[in-house]
């Protein structure tokens, strides 16, 4: 009789902290892993919806995902009052699970995992949309970034890795935060400067990475053929871009079902019934070459964050840290 393999004890599970997550998932590696997943078995339309539950002073957020080899769940807490106390608004962990036995394999920093997978997914979308630009993509893209938090910082880092010839300008509500972000980038050898909303018409790429619930700029000002990524918010009551931009743009979404549930940037501009009829391209279709851009129109990528992305990066971190 063959002995049954023991499941790892909880105390024996490897833990990957923030530094380990960053080391195992550099930007180009993370983007390549997401693209391989989309070219393989991952279908964003089959992704599990995120689950919310009340918590003291905030809420719990659970994001489960399943795959052939690995499954997992990200467990986060959202505490809106924390920033005023000098604490992080969102905190949590990721539990990676063996799909065959459902045994836990590892635990890792869920906040850092989010900080990596979101920009990696955005830049996968932006780079592929740029590649489909009528007449070819700009040799030196001008990138305008809205936001001065960790997502803005990491989106510039990821954009620099994927678009090494790009120039960067950063727009934020608090000039001191913008200057701190620019200084942090300078220490890493990435040049950026303070930007202004008035630069929107001249940008080739606009990255919206804010917590704003109101549009950041007039969508009529966006240049023809420009690429805009609105990824800082999720929820039907939150938006970073206006209906004008949505209606004049080609649209790419992470997943159509997730966009209908949570993409506040899209739903006010058109009804759910209209979006079902339009059927905008999702990420899988984008990387498979299914986007035909309309000459003279901007292209808007609307991202809300999906559980399959966490699973792809968590597997990358685990394999990089345990299979050496």
UniProtKB/TrEMBL annotation:
Q: Which residues form a coiled coil?
A: none
Protein known as: Ornithine cyclodeaminase family protein
Q: Which InterPro entries match?
A: NAD(P)-bd_dom_sf (IPR036291), ODC_Mu_crystall (IPR003462), ODC_N (IPR023401)
- Which Pfam families does the record cross-reference, listed alphabetically? OCD_Mu_crystall (PF02423)
